[in-house]
Description:
This protein is of the alpha+beta class. Helices cover 31% and strands 14% of the residues. It has two domains: 3-155, Four Helix Bundle (Hemerythrin (Met), subunit A); 166-439, Alpha-Beta Complex (paralog of FGE (formylglycine-generating enzyme)).
Amino acid sequence: MTDETLDAETLRTRALTTLTTARDRTTLLTSCVDDPDLTAQHSPLMSPLVWDLAHIGNQEELWLLRAVAGREAMRPEIDGLYDAFEHPRSERPKLPLLPPAEARQYAAEVRGRVLDLLESTAFHGTRLTEAGFAFGMIAQHEQQHDETMLITHQLRKGPQALTAPDPDPAPLFTGPAEVLVPGGPFMMGTSTEPWALDNERPAHRREVAPFWIDTAPVTNEAYQEFIEDGGYRVDRWWSPAGWAHIREHSIDAPLFWRRDGDQWLRRRFGVTEVVPPDEPVVHVSWYEADAYARWAGRRLPTEAEWEKAARHDPTTDRSMRYPWGDADPGPEHANLGQRHLRPAPAGSYPEGESPLGVRQLIGDVWEWTASDFLPYPGFRAFPYKEYSEVFFGPEYKVLRGGSFAVDEVACRGTFRNWDYPIRRQIFSGFRTARSAEGV
């Protein structure tokens, strides 16, 4: 067997594995509740679960069966129903969506044809097929919608539908509270990661001044100190837009929290529990993260600072794929893939720390950064403008690092997420930074 054949077989196996992993998760998320829960809209911020299910199948058909294989549309009449840009989420329940059984059948039929296509695809010739990019893009797309569906499960009222083991207990982290990241240039983004999406490209040199960054994400306990100190009642910690927003919506704690006497409780996937002090805080908006950082006498890291802390090895002066190196994530490195339904205690996963000793940069909670979502120098939209380009601008803030709800195929040291600064239903947390004057 030639090296070329080995490479093709390796790519085929990777594509099959990632597609199968995503579909197994989709099946879990859509089979753990009855049909009325699939067709209901649990929040105007989210689609009905059955819309996500058929949308996943429709995108797979569009890009793999039509764009790669050149086949005729299986059901052209439904394309408009599952175009994410044609119908806002709040209006999707009113559409003539495929009912659950039909949506499952459609997605399964598409997948069967895709697996046949995978057996005969040559992983070269076009940008879509090079290194199996289109298959990787679709696996990432499905996993992103799996995370969206998990958010819907968190918003859903009613009894618990999902279960998963808790992360292993971790000893109390006693290391330094912050780490110094030396100043100087580093390579940001990527031009070589085969399944990287357009907004991660191209790699480019970025100069960063020295700064200090939290060793671990901000915890519930630390965030409670902000609350108890009147953080939500003092306007000087907030940006004008943030202050107006929390006042308008009477926000006084992270989403899903409520006070019970002298303790805080939270609702997590249908279960009410005491807020665990040692976990990273989750379900906070950018405005809340920014206010906490100001209260603490610090700031949110920029996107470039976050990536340098996560990827740069000062010993070799090289940007790595992940904080721990170039190896794919394992359970010893990070909390990913819905393996657990909560963040691990702050300071967990010492084998996943960066060369400078920063922990939990991958997994657990998405981390808000100070940066707007903007293109890198030399950016080119591929394969369609609606993936990234239409979102560039100051309306969106960048999040980095993934969460416990993110699969490894959709999480890299270069991966960029973005959302409105008001968003709290997402699995978002943060860590803080400060400039290192004179270092």
